[in-house]
């Protein structure tokens, strides 16, 4: 089996699906000759031509709304928004218009559209390029929000996203674009939505994360293992749909839980995770669930990322206090 | 130095004269010929009279609390009907704002479905499979770039369909308008941006909306022509739209049309124009009723007399009653509708909540 | 003391502050001659003239971004966005641009701007007019999100908002515009941000709400009182800043808590409330905290509001199961 | 019928010829006179040469990993400098995108602060109180409507300030552009929309951005004039901008200027134009270097020789070293900066988190 980085896995999914389904079109800023600023679409323009791989004008609103129009026409658009923070420029088109066509038309129209967008720290991007705003999209019924953490999932979930008849915001971990290589099957396979992934099992505490934060949770779990603490690491994979059952099962088994994410604390998706667990598994909890997140400040310049983002130290410390409780 | 600096794109103090075919007295203007057969013009009359009958009934129903907010078409019937009739409903699409009733009917939407829309029945947005239109759009201007994408997509699939998207002069201020025009230009999408300038966006007058003497002047900024047409002249609107449809169909790209008209009714049934309307402006436009103008034309060329209009009005009232009755027979919304068509494949959590809510109360 | 409805209280605050501070300008769709579609600015155009009360073109992005520009120039804009759902059209200008000017310029520039916006059910508005998306704004550090529930607070908090040197999203309960009359002092007073309001005190359970949902919580508390259940009703008043201490105190005192809001459940602000309480007051909790919210569906047409929105019956039922736990 | 239907706003196949004052050989074009004194032109040379020296140094530093992403100005120096020098920094404002270094310097921003910006020091965005400019904007086009609001606000306060807002042809596709143009038009705000069309937005070529032959054609759609200027011609840019400043100052409203130029460097230091650049297009523009053109002019009219340019370049290199050194002396970001200037009055919860984080690690 070949090994792939996240970006290679995404590229592989794109080319497979474009070859399999003629209705698939890829659009976005710089996705054509350049192959995308991160090269996710490299080679597609040469192979599928300018009618199916389209360099869009510089407007996220235009990208999302015309992708929506393409979907309404019967095509299957996969649009790239260069950075997740810039989905805000298309916010009403994505979180209302795309999300509600099915509902508003009683199923006559569906928005079978995928918006791919990288996010997250670690790459020391310029101002406004790393914002994690998944929670803001998760509060928009009709939209799915999926956040793969590894190459295998990136490929399988992107194929699921493109085939999903509903709009999917596919958030990609920028930090792992070039790294995190792992074996990824050639050819077609899908990873279903709404099924969390148990990355490792341990009986002392459950670390819940998604996207890049899963790797952080794993590293923290390694360190805690040296101290004799056995962690379960659960990768939610998709926020909408949320695998409530899998989450409850994983937390009930340890009685202790820590949620890790890159977005600011207040109204981040960690709040939903905590609220859900405490509603559904209150009596299994031996200690309060904690969140390790960014503080409620704007995303700072790169050299302040270490202060801003969750890191191993902060995750371990929080885990230790939960264990001490 | 300023002599060196010529403004390559100067702004005139006033916009150009709108295209006109039919004079207010119902005569053709010098040198003009109608773009529609007499039978088509009679069909247009039917749609316009029906639209006005709906307006009247809907306002009445709303006063009795039997209808939600309703946006009357009155004054804009020629603008909507003339443009819609340039389309072939068997292949072309209409993308609505909300004030284009005759266009929906021309596309084939049953009138009863509109009553469902106005009473807030979920089936109101359910466009039958055979009807090529999107649901009414309440989020101003959101439909504009979607229409451009739709047109682009139809063309990519090798269809020779044309899309007409309707919106107001108010809508043209939203970023969505710009983005729709932009993508249509670069993809040469077969879409017609049909801007109904009815002089107000709720209470906001046209001049507060933009300093441009004409909104059609925006076309060239996106590589497409911009036309101004007398929106109370059925034949002018139809001719200009026909030309734009031909252009789009031929693969030559999109067109912007500013149809200058006037909203003779309130913005909707909860609005009171007395607070802001300019009575002189209103009086000037009141003299230009679009239905009367066509009637005068038909009196001249097709031997119409007063009885034809009355007959039509009678038929229209009956049709309105019929449609309203049919719509009401469907009954109100049922709680389970809330949980339908949210996703093809709803999340577990939503299904559980559905069970809880529909089981419980 | 005169009695006022919510809309009268807002109008009073606007006219007082415009008279007191020449820098205040009011802008929005239809705020001029019409006095706003809900008449919040009625009389201001006649009194302060077209330079200070401006009918804006139909674009929320334009309203928010030019208000931001006005603020950068040294004025104090109060902008109306006709419905809160339409703040999405201005999402990046509000949640990033306005929210981060202070941070990005190290204090050289501040965005002393207030965005007023009504929201919420009960008025049977057309599609897309009632959406409650406060949680999506609360995840934007730099922005304050305030949600008065009654005329007294509406006036005092609007005066606080206008005088606040940072951007404030001021969310108004549409349902209460004409009703909920109560005594409101004439003249100047402010209600500070970050201090929850105890609407009533009871020892059995704490109902937490904001904006219109506070009234629902009160009605439910009345009904529960008939069954002998004594409720504390806590009005959060502002989501950002959040009165963590007040919240914890109110919940610790009863050991049971129910959060009520109009927004959809998943990633609604109720999640943050639950997460905060369980982090800070875990050991005082006798039962899981529950949320009564809208389900994760789009906002339906008016006649389905009763199925969609929280109501007395659902609040009481949830309270009873918490009490039975 | 189509003969009736004249497009009132037709689209030409090509845009108009840009305004030009200085021929590529440094001679004035027939009938043109310079809008700047010779001393001012020498000052412009200083800014342009300094800008290019910064480009060189920054690219070098970035390769060594000592600088974040940097967007070179090379090729656009005349476009930026000519426009900025039409302003009076004691009352006028500059609202940047990010590729306008000489304009910032002309407004009075110390070069060292820019090095702070590029190294990601928080103080980089801290514009000194005396300098009338907003911080660099990374969110493309977001600054455009803010600039319109700023200009409107300054005028409401009775100031006679003018605002120039810079942005690329890429930025002109965003809804923000439309909204900024719209509000400036209706308020007659004293703002100049200075669109630098450098032919690319990262890799996306100009023709993929819009079907309009000229982006200046968008002016009239907002009630303002649109000019096209040779952006590699310092004197043409300055003349056109001066006229727009005069117009704005006189209360006559905003102007759109499309400055046609070329990005001779990569988009930023992590970009590789070889993947997408049209080599012929590049070669054509390479022959039109904006600094060389002004130098040739100064050779003609002010007796410049090669040594003057070399001297300037030497000075510029030193100035760059000095500024870089001063910037580095400030040291890196400190953790506490993260918690500063979030709110005037930070929430309790944030203060607690600050204590935890700064105390703890
Ligand atoms: C995005 C958005 N903003 C505001 C509103 C409130 N609103 C409803 S209709 C309307 C005016 C529309 O004016 P125009 O586009 O000229 O169409 P007209 O009603 O005149 O036909 C406004 C402001 C809305 N529905 N959507
Ligand atoms: C809203 C937004 N979308 C996308 C980007 C990514 N991006 C950064 S620069 C750039 C191109 C800008 O092109 P243009 O406006 O022509 O300016 P230029 O770089 O050519 O000077 C893009 C797409 C961004 N920073 N902001
Ligand atoms: Mg209108
Ligand atoms: Mg460019």
Task: Summarize this structure as a short list of keywords or feature phrases.
heterotetramer; A: 325 residues; alpha/beta; 7-stranded mixed β-sheet; 5-stranded mixed β-sheet; 11 helices; globular; B: 361 residues; 5-stranded parallel β-sheet; two-stranded antiparallel sheet; 7 strands; 43% helix; disordered N terminus; binds thiamine diphosphate; binds magnesium ion
Structure described in brief:
The complex is a heterotetramer, with two copies of chain A (325 residues) and two copies of chain B (361 residues). Helix content of chain A is 37%, strand content 19%.
How does the SSE layout of this entry go?
The complex is a heterotetramer, with 2 copies of chain A (325 residues) and 2 copies of chain B (361 residues).
Chain A: E1 3-4, H1 6-20, E2 24-28, H2 44-48, E3 53-55, H3 60-72, E4 76-80, H4 91-104, E5 114-119, H5 134-138, E6 144-146, H6 151-163, E7 168-173, E8 182-183, E9 197-200, E10 205-209, H7 213-226, E11 231-235, E12 238-240, H8 244-254, E13 257-264, H9 269-280, E14 290-294, H10 305-308, H11 312-324
Chain B: H1 38-63, H2 77-84, E1 93-95, H3 101-107, H4 111-118, H5 143-156, E2 163-168, H6 175-187, E3 191-197, E4 200-201, E5 204-205, H7 206-209, E6 226-230, H8 234-249, E7 255-260, H9 279-286, H10 290-302, H11 306-329, H12 348-360
Parallel strand pairs in B: 1-2, 2-3, 3-7, 6-7
Antiparallel strand pairs in B: 4-5
Bound molecules: thiamine diphosphate (TPP) (2 copies) and magnesium ion (MG) (2 copies).
């Amino acid at each position: 089996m070949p090994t792939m980085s996240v970006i290679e896995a995404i590229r592989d999914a794109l080319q497979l699906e474009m070859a399999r389904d003629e209705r698939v079109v890829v659009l976005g800023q710089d996705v054509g000759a350049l192959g995308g600023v991160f090269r996710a679409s490299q080679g597609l323009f040469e192979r599928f031509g300018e009618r199916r791989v389209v360099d869009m004008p510089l407007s996220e609103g235009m990208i999302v709304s015309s992708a929506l129009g393409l979907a309404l026409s019967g095509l299957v658009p996969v649009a790239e928004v260069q950075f997740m923070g810039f989905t805000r420029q298309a916010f009403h088109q994505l979180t209302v218009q795309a999300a509600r066509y099915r509902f508003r038309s009683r199923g006559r129209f569906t928005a079978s559209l995928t918006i791919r967008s990288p996010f997250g720290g670690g790459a020391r991007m310029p101002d406004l390029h790393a914002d994690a705003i998944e929670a803001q999209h998760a509060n928009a019924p009709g939209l799915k929000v999926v956040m793969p953490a590894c190459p295998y999932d990136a490929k399988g979930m992107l194929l699921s996203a493109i085939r999903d008849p509903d709009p999917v915001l596919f958030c990609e971990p920028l930090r792992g674009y070039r790294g995190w290589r792992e074996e990824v099957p050639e050819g077609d396979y899908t990873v279903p939505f709404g099924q969390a992934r148990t990355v490792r099992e341990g009986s002392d505490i459950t670390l819940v994360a998604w996207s890049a934060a899963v790797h952080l949770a794993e590293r923290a779990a390694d360190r805690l293992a040296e101290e004799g603490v056995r962690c379960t690491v659960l990768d939610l994979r998709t926020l909408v749909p949320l695998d409530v059952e899998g989450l409850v099962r994983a937390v009930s088994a340890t009685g202790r839980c820590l949620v890790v994410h890159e977005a600011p604390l207040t109204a981040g998706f960690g709040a939903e995770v905590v609220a859900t667990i405490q509603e559904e598994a209150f009596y299994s909890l031996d200690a309060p669930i904690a969140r390790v997140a960014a503080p409620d400040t704007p995303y700072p310049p790169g050299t302040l990322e270490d202060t801003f983002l969750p890191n191993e130290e902060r995750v371990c410390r929080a885990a230790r206090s939960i264990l001490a409780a | 130095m300023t002599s060196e600096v010529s403004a390559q794109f100067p702004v005139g103090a006033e916009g150009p004269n709108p295209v006109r075919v039919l004079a207010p007295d119902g005569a053709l203007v010098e040198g003009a010929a109608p773009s529609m057969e007499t039978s088509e013009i009679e069909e247009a009359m039917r749609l316009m009279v029906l639209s006005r009958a709906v307006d009247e009934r809907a306002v009445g129903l709303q006063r009795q609390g039997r209808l939600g907010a309703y946006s009357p078409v009155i004054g804009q019937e020629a603008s909507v009907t003339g443009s819609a009739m340039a389309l072939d409903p068997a292949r072309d699409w209409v993308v609505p704002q909300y004030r284009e009733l005759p266009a929906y009917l021309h596309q084939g939407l049953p009138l009863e479905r509109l009553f469902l829309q106005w009473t807030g029945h979920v089936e109101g947005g359910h466009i039958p499979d055979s009807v090529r239109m999107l649901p009414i759009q309440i989020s101003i201007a959101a439909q504009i770039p979607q229409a451009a994408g739709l047109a682009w997509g139809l063309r990519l699939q090798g269809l020779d369909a044309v899309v007409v998207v309707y919106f107001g002069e108010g809508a043209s201020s939203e970023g969505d308008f710009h983005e729709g025009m932009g993508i249509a230009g670069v993809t040469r999408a077969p879409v017609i941006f049909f801007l109904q300038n009815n002089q107000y966006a709720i209470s906001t007058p046209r001049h507060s909306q933009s300093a441009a003497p004409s909104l059609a002047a925006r076309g060239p900024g996106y590589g497409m022509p911009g036309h101004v047409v007398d929106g109370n002249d059925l034949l002018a609107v139809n001719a200009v739209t026909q030309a734009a449809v031909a252009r789009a169909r031929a693969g030559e790209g999109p067109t912007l049309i500013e149809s200058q008209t006037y909203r003779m009714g309130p913005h909707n049934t909860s609005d009171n124009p007395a607070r802001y309307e300019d009575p002189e402006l209103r009086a000037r436009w009141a003299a230009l009723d679009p239905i009367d103008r066509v009637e005068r034309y038909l009196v001249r060329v097709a031997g119409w007399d007063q009885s034809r209009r009355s007959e039509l009005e009678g038929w229209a009232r009956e049709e309105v009653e019929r449609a309203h009755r049919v719509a009401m027979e469907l009954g109100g919304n049922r709680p389970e509708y809330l949980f339908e068509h949210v996703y093809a494949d709803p999340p577990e959590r939503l299904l559980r909540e559905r069970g809880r809510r529909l089981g419980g109360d």
